[in-house]
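I'm stuck. Protein, please.
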Amino acid sequence: MEQNGSVLIVDDEEGLRFGLKVFLSRNGFSVRESGTLSEAKDLMQSIFFDVAILDIRLKNKESGLDLIRTIRDQNPNAVILIITGYAELDTAIDALRKGANDYLQKPLEKERVLDSIRKNRELSLLRRENRQLKEELKKGNNEGKIIVDSFVMKEILRTADQVKNLAPNILISGESGTGKEVLARYIHETGNRSENNFVALNSAALSSNLLLSELFGHRKGAFTGAVEDKAGKFELAHKGTFFLDEVGDMSLGIQAKFLRVLEEKSFEPLGGNNRIKIDTHIIAATNHDIPSLIKKGLFREDLFFRLNVIHFNLPPLRERKEDIGNLSNNFIKMYSRQYRKSVDPLGENEIQILKEYSWPGNIRELKNLINRIVILTDQEQICSEQIRRFLGCSPEEIESPIPTKTTFHVAQSGTLAERLNPVIEEYEKKILIQALEKNRFNRTRTAEELGITRKTIGRKLHSYNL
């Protein structure tokens, strides 16, 4: 069975420790247990624990609370659950203040323990990702994120800086590939919610039923396949930012539910009875003309007014060509490091060639172009002829991005699927890039050519970070 991490149980009730150990072991965890603080500290000398379940009152007047700091020093991202037979509010608050993630009362419901572990590990992962993004911003190490030389983009960032700490509903519009999620992340990471989660969801990539589950979460048994409680994106983004991409593709039914969340600042999980209050900065994005959708009866006007408190319309790359040079060189720097190559920044002639192109796929197309050139070049300096060849010829005339002989590293251990899947994913990614470029980044035509749905295209683009 796949290992979900290591768990330390500290409780003076041997029967409770044994029952929890058996249950969590069956669910894929590696479990060690102890009845005293000294035994627990000895275990921590040799084992790195991902989860700790601590009884608040042990024998000899010991307390599991005294282990919290030691565990946090060993693993700042550990999930710490405090358990007790006494319902004392002051003690619960003290435990959470000292760094515990949750507080559970005996007798324990094993499923409740498992649900708390999973939920808090997911939250911990999101916080860690957000801390890394924040550190990148502090270090200026965010290649291709916010690169602006054009007046129009500088004005957009100036307005974003004015509103980022006020958390108004924001609607970002613009063609595909113009950097809508990049702007949303900038608002979050440089604002006063940066210590909390940035949660993103692309509604176009999901069916209506799956989208409802992702947005609101669900309770165990809410529908077939709901074998455990799951927190939704709204809940995960509490005190942080929720970015909903492709909002114009949502059905009218889901739009109505989304509107109610905006109005009431609360929601009910699927299959739940209690409303959950949230304090979340909502940022939505679309590549559609929402007023036109409203006229066609495809988008709720009241939802548009709720979202459109602050509106940013990102211009296509062909209208902000001043940014092309720095964007290109930042992508070169990023991919040179990724592929361990030494490729010099573009010269003025090469940048001018890029500026003369119309960029129907916008920044995403530019990024993919630089990615391919860096992969395929065997020179330190990218020349004008290379850029013209990649831009001016049909995909069949361009050096194929799909090698005739595999150049991917194949793992020397693991099952056949484990060794083969990464290679298949790389080929699929290259085929997808080739088809998108051939169809000028039109997702509908690309989907028709490849025999898949537009939603599948969106899901794969998100999966491959394209």
The chain has four domains: 5-123, 156-314, 317-399, 410-466. The chain has a mean pLDDT of 85. The chain has 19 helices and 14 strands. Residues 312 and 395 are 34 Å apart (CA to CA).
